[in-house]
Structures are given as C-alpha cells and as structure tokens.
C-alpha cells in the first residue's frame, strides 16, 4: 500500500500522462478514421485507393515499429516535435485504421437503398453520407469503437519506452527505489482499469442512448 | 402527337460481366408523357429505369435529359438528379427520420429552402397523398402502401421534371396496391412525365401513353397500350401476355 501513498505524485503524473495520450490520440483517431472511412466509400477511385493503403499500412504494422519509425525516422527529415506529440500522432494514426474499418462495417449495415434514395433526390456524396448513412451507421458502430479506444488506452504504454510520461513507465523509478515490484504493478493495473472502465461506461451510455433498434 | 422530348436514350448498351443487360436501347419520352415499361424478370427494365438518373452507369451510348447529356459523378450529376424523382420498389424512406423530415430533408439540403418553408410544402404534399395525419411518425410505423405514398411525396417535393417508378407496387400487399396506383393515376392526369416499370397491366392500360415491352435486354415493342394489349406484334410479347393475363 505504501508504494502508492509514498509515491502518489509519481503515479498521478503517469496516470495523467496516459489519460492525455488516450484523449488526444482518440480524438485524432476518430477524426482520421471518419475521414478515411469516407474515402473508402467515395465514388472517386483515387480516394478509395488512398483510404485502402492508409488502413492496410497502419493496421498491419506493429505499433512498436511504427513508434520507431515516427520517433526516430521523422527527426531525420527535419521534423522535430516533442515526444509526446509524436506519440499522439503515432497512436492516433495507428488507431484510425481500426476506427475506419469499424465505421465502414457500420456503413455496410445501412441498406444500399438509403444511399440511393438520398442520391436520387440530388443530395451530394457528402450530404448522403453525413445526413442519411452515417447517422444510421453510428448506432451499430458504438460497441466496436469502444473496444478500439480501450485498446488505444492500453497501447499508449508503448510510448513509455520512448521516454513519454505515462502510467506504465512509473514502474522504472519505483523499481530502482526498491519497492515491491508486484505491488507497483498492481497499482499501475488499477490506474489502467480506471481509464478503460471509464471508456466502457461512456460507451455503454452512448449505446443506451443512441443504439436503439429501429 | 408531336411532343417535345424530355428523356432520350440513344444506342444505350450495358454489360454486367458477360451479361448484356441493355442492348442498343433507343427510347424517347416526351414531356408530359407516361411510359410504362413491362417485361419478364431479368429483361433489363429496372436497369433501364435506373440508368436514367445514373444510379446505374452505362457502357456506351448517350442519355439526354431536357436536351443535355447526363453529367458524370459530382455536383452537376446531383443537380440533375434533383430534377428527376425516383420511387423505389422497397420505398427506401430514411429509417431514422420522421415522415415529415423525410419529405423535407432534400428540400432543405438541395433546394436550400428554409425549414419552415420546406415543412409547409411537405405537409401540403403529404395531404395530397392522404397522409397528413402521419407526419410525425417514423417510416417503420406505416404500412407499405403508406410508405410508398410518402416516397412519392418526397420525390414530388423537389418539383421534378420527371418521375421514375421502379416497380413501385411490387413489394406491396394486394390491398395496398390501389392506394399507390391512385396517386400515380392522379399524377399522370396532371401531366407529370413518368417512366413506370411495373407489372400492373391495369395501370398500363388506363394511364400510359405508351407501353414499352422489353425482353432479354432489348426493347421489343413500343406502342400505345390499346394496340399492345389487343394485338401484340411479337411472339415474345404474346407469350408474356398469355402467361400474365390468364389468371
């Protein structure tokens, strides 16, 4: 117990670091995922190709490798940003591939006739997607997007290996100070549970509110 | 009667893989004309109907609307579609919106009318198809016939130059077919240009100016309903009519 009480500040710092990474990367992933999903169903071929390449490259690359590529690769091309920002970019782009696919599967649950009706009324692709297809797709994608964001929260631990302040990384100083490693990790696990269970709770609410059957 | 052409199809061809679904289609629909397309399943009649507002693309040939060729994807195509209403076999009302919002949505988004103006027009049209009292309901709460009438109101809300009907009564219970046909009869009588793919021979006889009979991707006959139903010229049409008119 005294691992936590003695080093409360260190834990809180790590905890907030993880929360920050999760929130910013989630927002980025949602925006990019939404954009890529629109690309993948767009009537223009080159957009579809771009979306497909984006998803396949990011989804099929190990996240650690991606971190190496961004944190060590980009500075070589003169792109120097704070490590935390790099971490948000990496996590956000990586997760956007999964969000995109969840959204796309949701779009596919909306009967084709809905889009055809909207187009036959003269609505543009963007209007059709935004006012007819996505609002109906949204209901069925709440659970998979929740899972993806929980995975994102846990994936953020990798950023710790690249000297970004986050929760898992707090074990290193604590270990050096000679605290019991098991209890150190128990409290770290509790921290992650607080974050992931909050995301679960948020998505449960969203599902109850919007996920009503038609 | 010599009518000004509104919809023209010239040498239109379309393939689905090896299947030649539309073969050298030439068809002109004049302003104010009601053309009924009939034919056996798989003859390409629905595909033909859907090519007119480019929900289906064509392989070769030309489609003109009001003298202008159909534009490719993009804003221009969207504008053109707003001029040609479409009513589908499966209604395709927006499931997440009320009846009123279904009719108003495209008026607001495409015609840029204000919500109040759009809703007012929507209520007038719903009243016209006999559904003013259902405005606040969701599509799933209506019967098939009612949904199809809403769909017609939704198409009319755009003030289209022409209406396309793709088997509008095929998914309906027999009881409900009439209420939809009555609305369509009324539109025809008012001079709306209509292309109707249907199996309702009664409607073809009473409302159509011309009957187009299609088989195997070709237009086999294009005549007045009177002439077509009493003395079909082709063997294929005689065969088709003998099968459907027996019962």
From TrEMBL, chain A:
Pfam families: BPD_transp_1 (PF00528)
Domain of life: Bacteria
PROSITE patterns hit by this protein: ABC_TM1
GO cellular component, one term: ATP-binding cassette (ABC) transporter complex
Keywords: Amino-acid transport, Cell membrane, Membrane, Transmembrane, Transmembrane helix, Transport
Gene Ontology MF terms in the entry: transmembrane transporter activity
Residue ranges of the TM segments: 12-37, 49-74, 80-100, 181-206
Protein family per UniProt: Belongs to the binding-protein-dependent transport system permease family. HisMQ subfamily.
Name of the protein in question: Amino acid ABC transporter permease
Native species: Streptomyces katrae
Automatic annotation (TrEMBL), chain B:
GO CC term, one of those recorded: plasma membrane
Family from the record: Belongs to the ABC transporter superfamily.
Cell compartments where the protein resides: Cell membrane
EC number assigned by the record: 7.4.2.1
Cited InterPro entries: AAA+_ATPase, ABC_ATPase_HisP-typ, ABC_transporter-like_ATP-bd, ABC_transporter-like_CS, MetN_ABC_transporter-like, P-loop_NTPase
SUPFAM superfamilies: P-loop containing nucleoside triphosphate hydrolases
Protein name: ABC-type polar-amino-acid transporter
Keyword annotations from UniProtKB, A to Z: Amino-acid transport, ATP-binding, Cell membrane, Membrane, Nucleotide-binding, Transport
Catalytic activity: a polar amino acid(out) + ATP + H2O = a polar amino acid(in) + ADP + phosphate + H(+)
Enzyme class: translocase
Principal place of residence: membrane
Transmembrane segments: none
Every ABC transporter domain range: 7-241
Highest rank taxon of the organism: Bacteria
Pfam families registered for this protein in UniProt: ABC_tran (PF00005)
Membrane topology: Peripheral membrane protein
MF term (GO), any: ATPase-coupled polar amino acid-transporter activity
């Amino acid at each position: 117990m005294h691992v936590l009480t003695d080093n409360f500040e260190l834990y809180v710092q790590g905890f907030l670091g993880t929360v920050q990474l999760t929130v910013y990367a989630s927002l980025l992933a949602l925006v990019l995922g939404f954009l890529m999903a629109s690309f993948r169903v767009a009537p223009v071929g080159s957009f579809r190709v771009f979306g497909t390449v984006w998803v396949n490259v990011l989804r099929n690359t190990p996240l650690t490798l991606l971190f190496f590529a961004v944190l060590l690769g980009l500075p070589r091309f003169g792109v120097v940003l704070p490590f935390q920002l790099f971490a948000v970019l990496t996590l956000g782009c990586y997760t956007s591939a999964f969000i995109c696919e969840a959204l796309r599967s949701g779009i596919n649950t909306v009967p084709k006739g809905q889009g055809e009706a909207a187009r036959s009324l003269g609505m543009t692709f963007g209007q059709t997607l935004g006012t007819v297809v996505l609002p109906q797709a949204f209901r069925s994608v709440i659970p998979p997007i929740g899972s993806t964001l929980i995975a994102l929260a846990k994936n953020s631990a990798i950023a710790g290996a690249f000297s970004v302040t986050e929760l898992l990384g707090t074990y290193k100083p604590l270990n050096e100070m000679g605290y019991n490693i098991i209890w150190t990790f128990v409290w770290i696990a509790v921290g992650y549970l607080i974050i992931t269970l909050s995301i679960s709770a948020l998505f449960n609410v969203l599902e109850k509110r919007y996920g009503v059957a038609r | 009667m010599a009518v000004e052409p509104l919809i023209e199809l010239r040498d239109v061809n379309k393939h689905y893989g090896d299947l030649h679904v539309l073969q050298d289609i030439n068809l002109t629909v004049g302003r104010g004309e009601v053309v009924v397309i009939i034919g056996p399943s798989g003859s390409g009649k629905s595909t033909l109907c859907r090519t007119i507002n480019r929900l289906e693309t064509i392989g070769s040939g030309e489609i003109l609307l009001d003298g202008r060729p159909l534009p490719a994807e993009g804003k221009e195509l969207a504008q053109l579609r707003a001029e040609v209403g479409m009513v589908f076999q499966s209604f395709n009302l927006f499931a997440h919106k009320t009846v009123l919002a279904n009719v108003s949505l495209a008026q607001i988004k495409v015609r840029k009318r204000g919500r109040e103006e759009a809703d007012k027009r929507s209520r007038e049209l719903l009243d016209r198809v006999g559904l003013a009292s259902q405005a606040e309901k969701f599509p799933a709460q209506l019967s098939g016939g009612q949904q199809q009438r809403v769909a017609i109101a939704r198409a009319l809300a755009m003030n289209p130059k022409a209406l396309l009907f793709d088997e509008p009564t095929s998914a309906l219970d027999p009881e409900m077919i009439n209420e939809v046909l009555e609305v369509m009869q009324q539109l025809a009588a008012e001079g709306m240009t209509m292309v109707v793919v249907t199996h309702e021979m009664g409607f073809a006889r009473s409302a159509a100016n011309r009957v187009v009979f299609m088989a195997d991707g070709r237009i086999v006959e294009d005549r007045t309903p009177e002439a077509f139903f009493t003395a079909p010229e082709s063997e294929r049409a005689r065969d088709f009519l003998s099968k459907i008119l027996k019962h």
